[in-house]
Amino acid sequence: MSERSALRRRIRAWLALFTICLVLSGLTAFPLVSEIHWLNSLMSHEWLRRVGDGLDRADADYPFLLYGTDWLAFAHLVIAVFFYGVHRDPVRNIWITEAGMIACAGIIPLALICGPIRGIPFWWSVIDMSFGVFGVIPLLVLRRMIKRLEAMPEPPTPAPAAHPAPEPVTAGP
Fold first, then answer.
1. Could you report the per-residue pLDDT of 111-167, keeping only the tens digit for each?
2. Which residues of 70-91 are buried (b: 16+ CB within 10 A; e: fewer)?
3. To the nearest 10°, the Cα dihedral for 39, 44, 50, 55?
């Protein structure tokens, strides 16, 4: 296996890791009510109980509010689809990886600004920010590998084989 194809395989492995995590993160946004019930059954924490109460009330009285988390889940799945472009042509579509890095960086100011506005405890905002910190790691690795791939010379394309001209067909002996 050539160094170039080995690097492409490593790029695809890191890309698969990131995409699977992105999809799983999105899928967990659909069943929030049952997830918080499960979490509250495992541990007793005032903030988690408050979140569970809020989700129960929203689900019972204002279920349309949870539609927003359905869109959050959908957005994660759509973003994951964009990374297929990196799978197909990492060098040409490196911008998708870089956009993902920008999105990861954007999580931090979002959590620091909107968390206090929404009454989210700081430690919970730190958990939210960790998604950006941990999410950017595979993207940084991907970007570095894509840049290495870009710097590698393209393998020579074989010249088409010359075919001899067909013998002219003549009529008669």
1. 999 999 999 999 999 999 999 999 999 999 999 999 999 999 887 777 777 676 677
2. eeebeebeebbeebeebeeebe
3. 20
Question: Alpha-carbon distance 55 to 34, whole Å?
Answer: 10
The tens digit of pLDDT for each residue in 52-103 reads: 999 999 999 999 999 999 999 999 999 999 999 999 999 999 999 999 999 9
Name 52's Cβ contacts closer than 8 Å, sequence gap at least 6. Answer: 36, 37, 39, 40
- Residues across the chain: 173
DSSP 153: P
Rounded Cα–Cα distance for residues 155 and 61 (Å): 63
**Torsion angles phi and psi, residue 152, rounded to 5:** -75, 140
